[in-house]
Specification:
Helix content: under 10%
Largest sheet: 4 strands, antiparallel
Distance between the termini: 67 Å
CATH class of one domain: Mainly Beta
Shape: globular
Structural class: mainly beta
Strand order of the largest sheet: 1-2-3-4
Length: 259
């Protein structure tokens, strides 16, 4: 019996050792992962104060720093689609970034936006004033960049236009699938947001949580597929972020603004 107990204990120790979660590295800013050359994966982060996108190897060694031109009064709010051969066929890294500015009014405030696509040398591939969101979509065997412009109307809402751009490459490789994601519209919002997915096979059901800027959960409900609506008119104005979880797996984490 003692031998059986000892053997069982050793097996439990071995299982625990194999399933241990080990911290590998910590980045001080929001980071994500991209594939640059069909083989190697890199981490990239968005440094808001320095207006930079920094790219690190899979072993967390700094690989490249890309400086982002941000107009005076604006701040960097998002970096997307970091990769090669997405917008043209050269070997340089390209990315899309979004910046915004807080504009107070007599009774409230609104945001002004801007969107740019550049390569690693800072050469501009696209500049869209008022651009506040973008996504990549596949249409038959070609891909399109959809960029959304938000222009504030003094009546208290945003006038939205959608610009559709043909991507420089006729056929994109598997990196395009990594650009698919979930997003909320409208953003900013005052009444309700609708969660959309640019993925062809989006989740049918997930746990949706909304957190305030201090990290406190303020709302929870079940996400029931593409186009699910969430009422936010009961939340104070401010900066929030929402998450989608399927079991213990985090599917999405994005910023939203309630006004």
């Amino acid at each position: 019996m003692k031998h059986l107990t000892l053997t069982t204990g050793m097996l439990l120790i071995a299982v625990c050792a194999m399933s241990q979660i080990t911290l590998e590295n910590t980045y001080n800013y929001s980071a994500s992962v991209t594939e640059l050359n069909d083989e190697d994966y890199y981490y990239y982060l968005m440094d808001v104060p320095a207006s930079q996108c920094r790219i690190y190897t899979s072993s967390h060694v700094l690989y490249k720093t890309i400086y982002l031109s941000i107009p005076d009064g604006y701040y960097l709010s998002d970096v997307k689609f970091v990769g090669t051969n997405l917008f043209n066929s050269d070997a340089l890294i390209e990315l899309l970034y979004i910046y915004e500015k807080y504009v107070p009014t007599e009774s409230s405030y609104y945001f002004q936006y801007g969107l740019s696509v550049i390569n690693e040398d800072g050469y501009s591939l696209l500049n869209l004033p008022n651009g506040g969101w973008a996504e990549l979509n596949k249409i038959k065997n070609e891909h399109r960049l959809l960029a959304y412009s938000y222009i504030y109307n003094p009546a208290g809402y945003y006038e939205v236009t959608t610009n559709v751009y043909k991507i420089g490459q006729t056929t994109l490789n598997s990196k395009i699938s990594q650009a698919s994601e979930y997003y909320a519209f409208p953003n900013p919002a005052s009444q309700a947001i609708t969660i959309y997915s640019s993925e062809e096979n989006s989740l049918n059901e997930a746990e949706l949580n909304i957190y305030d800027s201090s990290g406190i959960k303020v709302k929870q409900q079940i996400y029931r597929g593409n186009g699910s609506k969430v009422q936010v008119d009961d939340l104070p104005a401010g900066l929030y972020h929402y998450t989608l979880k399927e079991g213990n797996k985090l599917i999405a984490s994005k910023k939203i603004i309630i006004r």
